[in-house]
Amino acid sequence: MDGVELGHRLQSRELNARDVLDAAIHAIDRLNPTLNAVVIKNFENASKSIRDGLVTGPLAGVPFLVKDVNVFTSDMPTTFSSRFFRGRIAQTRQSPGRASARGRTGAAGKK
What we know:
Layout: H1 3-11, H2 17-35, H3 43-52, H4 96-107
C-alpha cells in the first residue's frame, strides 16, 4: 500500500494512526539491523504528534522517513551519512533543506 492509499484509509478511519506508527516502528526495528537505513530514530516525536491530535491533511498520520543527505534540520542531527558529521545539528532555525523537503512533506499532514 502506498502513502496515498494509507492516507485515505487513515482519513476514513479504516486504520488508526497509532497502529500504523506501531507497524512502521516494528518494521524499522526488524529490518534496520540488516539494512542500516535509519540512522536517527525520532519515534517519540511521531508518537507525540498522535497524542496531541492529528490535524487534517492528505498525509496526516502517514509515517515517513527523511534521508539526511543535504537536508539540514535544526531539531535533529544531520549526518550526511558520514561518521564525520555524527551529532551535527544545523545552527539556524530556518535551515535550507527543511523548508523544501521535510517541511513540505510534514506540512501535508498539518493545517
